[in-house]
Amino acid sequence: MKKTIGSDILQSEKINKLVKELAHEVHEKNRQIQGVKDPDPELVNEAENKRNHISQLRGRPLYHPYIGSRAGYGPYVELEDGSIKLDLINGIGIHLMGHGHPDLIETAIRASLSDIVMQGNLQPNAEYVALTDSLVKLAGKQSRLKHAWLATCGTMANENALKMARQKNSPAKLVVAFSDAFAGRSTMMAEITDNPAYRVGLPTYNEVLRLPFCGPRSGQECHEQTLRKLKEYYEQHEKNIACMVFEPMQGEGGFKYGTREFLLPLLQFCREKKIAIWVDEVQTFTRTGQLFAFETLGIGDYVDICTIAKTAQVGATLYTEEYNPQPGLVAGTFSGSTVSLAVGQEILRILTEEGYLGPEGKIRKIHESFVGMLNSLSNGSCRGLLADAGGLGLMVAVTPYDGTKQKTEALIKRLYKNNLIAFSCGKDPCRVRFLIPATIDEKAIMVAKNIIEKSVLEGQ
Ligand SMILES: Cc1ncc(COP(=O)(O)O)c(C=O)c1O
Fold first, then answer.
1. What residue owns the CA closest to ligand 1's atom 8?
2. 283 CA to centre of ligand 1 in angstroms
3. Ligand 1 pocket, CB under 6 A
4. Radius of gyration of the chain (CA)
5. How far does residue 237's CA lie from ligand 1's centre (Å)?
């Protein structure tokens, strides 16, 4: 069969052998990274200088004193100061498979041999086609989603989603969103985000109608009040509501998920009134035990538009036939690098072929073990100091002390000093958030337990 030069580069025996040798050599190095380690006194000064330099360039300090050394393995990452940290936040959810995953490194090396670095909608290569195809096929299993449009990040995927909803329902422009929502950093996504601290000095467009988000512990009253409010909004603004957007499980907002009992009446109402239902899965995609949280919650049939990013290594807006926009509405010169598109595709392959998903999958087991570990602390040595461990799948949070921002942030700094990387979420209470890598094992969960216990007790 006739071959192109391009397929020869990807498949020739010689290149394949070289790629595998390189990946193997890097793997052998990364594999040495096992367990946490304090900074090396000989490397500390130079690493600090570099951190100060980046802080000065950006005009503000890094949140964590972190610059990676470029090496890591599974849940562990090595820093330039020689320390090894247990990374339970993964760049806020980008590195689902943790660090130094050999298959991803091999995929990245192969993809880097391409003739171009970035791909976009005008001249896509095979990686763009393959990832789009996988996303559409996987999303279509339990929803009516039929198309996908790639974009550079979650915020851009959300902007495209908003445009699609508004165009289809034109001239409607209002957006129903929820308390504690987070939608990204563009001007409009900052308005959908329910945090005034993220838009200080920006004008207010008054295009968002806010509903309370009822978590799994809020009762029927919260559900009824929210539905009532949605109906009131509809009466006030009948023809002017373009869409309702929600995170199936709020990330930044405190790791609360919407139950079917809460969401279904709202979804039914929106469907009846032809308000677009847009699910922001930028953080939940691949994390809740199924690929999409709309599958975990059993609401896929209602979804008109779904946005993802982070684990996918690229942003994407998925949409039904009805919401397919007219030419000219969405574009963008590049969507992602050839390497990130190929790696995103490989992550999906690993997740779907290597037993991560479903009720018996690895994600479910990690969730039970990790939450069990946190509960053993809150029922034991950390009684009264840690509470409410829970979440879905690899998204787990716990409330420390009295849940004030000040005490939670101080604990996150102590965890970091003791070599565990976490982050905060939620306002009241402010919680410790973990985005657990899918490659964590029982031994690393025990390492986490010891560090969490030590750090919590230090702050008593
Ligand atoms: C739910 C949600 N939506 C949107 C975004 C924005 O994504 P990005 O940072 O890729 O622009 C995030 C990022 O954390 C998110 O969690």
1. 154
2. 7
3. 92, 153-155, 158, 182-184, 247, 251-252, 280, 282-283, 309
4. 23
5. 28
pLDDT for position 1: 72
Q: What is the mean pLDDT of each run of 10 residues along the chain (460 residues)?
A: 86 93 98 97 97 96 96 98 98 98 98 96 96 98 98 98 98 98 97 96 94 92 97 95 98 94 97 98 97 97 98 98 97 95 98 97 98 98 97 98 98 98 96 98 98 96
Å from CA of 5 to ligand 1 middle = 38
Distance CA 100, CA 304 (A): 36
Q: State whether the Cα torsion 99-108-362-432 is positive or negative.
A: positive
How long a stretch of residues is the chain? 460
Give the distance (Å) from ligand 1 centre to CA of residue 122: 25
Atom 3 of ligand 1 has which residue's CA nearest to it? 183
Taking the C-alpha atoms of residue 373 and residue 367, their distance in angstroms, rounded to an integer, is 10
Contacts of 80 (CB under 8 A, 6+ apart): 43, 46, 47, 50, 67, 68, 69
Instruction: Tell me the two tokens of residue 273.
Output: 């009134």
> Phi then psi for 428, rounded to 5 degrees?
-140, 85
| Angstrom distances, CA of residue 180 to CA of 28, 110, 128, 183, 364 | 44, 41, 34, 10, 26
Beta-strand pair 305-308/315-319: antiparallel
Judge contact between 259 and 216, C-beta under 8 A: yes
Q: Which atom of ligand 1 is nearest to the CA of 181?
A: 1
What is the three-class DSSP state of 79?
strand
Question: 185 C-alpha vs ligand 1 centroid, how far in Å?
Answer: 8
Element (H or E) spanning 277, and its range?
Answer: strand 276-280
Mutate to test the pocket of ligand 1, among 283, 284, 308, 425 (most ligand atoms within 8 A of CB): 283
Indicate the top mutation candidate among 310, 311, 394, 425 to test ligand 1's pocket, ranked by most ligand atoms within 8 A of CB: 310
The helix/strand/coil state of 241 is strand
The verdict on whether omega for the bond into residue 325 sits within 30 degrees of 0, i.e. cis, is no
- Ligand 1 centroid to 158 CA: how many Å? 9
138, two tokens:
């996987």
76-79 and 84-87 as β-strands: parallel, antiparallel, unpaired?
antiparallel
Distance 254 CA to ligand 1 centre (A): 14
Amino acid at the residue 175: V
